[in-house]
Amino acid sequence: MAVTPSKDYKRKEREQRKLEKRIARDAAKAEKIEALRVAEEEAEQAAAEKLVEDAKKKEEEEFEAELEAERASKAGA
To answer: 0.70 cut: is pTM over it?
Structure first.
């Protein structure tokens, strides 16, 4: 005589599949959020580095302008 699975067994299997799908969706969401956070941090770091680089470049340009003005005044004297 063949034994068929009970309705309770089928229900438990269906609920388990739903649970596994929900866990997979939540994991994907968490991974996406983490990727966005990392991208934001990298963008902030790049922006900070650019600010420092721009400040150094401006300082160097000002120094060069002062040096050139000093050379011009010495040459004229």
So the answer is: no
